[in-house]
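Action item from last week, closing it out:
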Amino acid sequence: MFLLRWLRRLIKTILWLIVLVVLIPVLGLAYGFLTTPALDKTPLPGIAEDAPPAQLAAKVRQATRDYQVPGQAAWLAYPKWAAVHAAHDYAAFVGKDQPSGFPYWAYVGHCWQDYATITRVTSARGIDILDYVVPTLIGTGLTIDYATQWAYENTVGRVTEATAGKRVAADIYQAKVAADYAAFLDTGPWTDFPYAEKRAGLFAVEPATGDDSIRTSERKLAFGLADTVKQWGADLGKSALAGAGDPSPPDIHVWAKGPVGEAARNEPDTLLERDLGGDGTIFVTSRSQAFTGMLLRLIDKGISFVEIGGNDEIMITVTAGAEITAPDGSRILFNQPIPVSPDTRRIALTVAVRKLHLVLPALAKAGAKLEHVYADD
């Protein structure tokens, strides 16, 4: 009888947890849609300028494998990169402060607001519900992760902070791990991060002179458990991906004009694929954070762009210390202060690809720093 009652309670608890997890994206998106404005759906100015001949564009698509990236893919990549940006912000914060002070809920709120905006953009292009599965899982995972961290760091974490009176060696080690993790996400998936190795490093940390033993033990126990759970999740995720296969090509095709051969000669993971004479050149390059810096270098060398991933619109984010006006050929999607640095704003814009070589320098002149070009999914 006792075993039956225990089993019933376990099943009931599991069902409540499932309901809670399902409610997270429902409530998150409801909050996002209610707290963000409707978007301007008129055609983006400049998008039709200097369009390639229709017959040539069709030929390129037919002859070039994996040339066309679905139009909504770049926008739907943002939730993944929003988690990367949050990881960088967290690493910068805990590099000098205790994690209890990090504004976890502000990042959760921004996550769902931004996702709501992205959903507005992509839904106008036609909805395939499967396209939204991964971004929704990312938002749900970030919410659970940050809610759990907030709850722990502002209860047990606050107590051991007060006991220690300063950052101990284990705190400093975990701050370095946070920086390593953020840097890793720029080029690799979270499932490939060596959580078990970092856990072993944490357990090997020797307390510095004057370190509080309670804080040291608590940090090792808490983050050691977190690393164990994340390693399990990463192993499970890799197994699932291996079984399903990854349909996304690792590279992206860029149709550009100007001295492309000379400009791209020393760019890593870049291959010239098709010379179209006076209509430009198509090259293939890797999808990663490095692509963002590469575009800036190419523009400096006189390159302009016809299509990126087969599309004539692209999304970018910039950071700026003040409000900016969208240059000709672009439109602001959202504009919000970065929670850990309220004097700096993260601004997302949709940009006509054939205006990109003008928009990026104009933004730089206005004091904005390019953060990411969303060419990947």
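Closing note: The mean pLDDT is 89.
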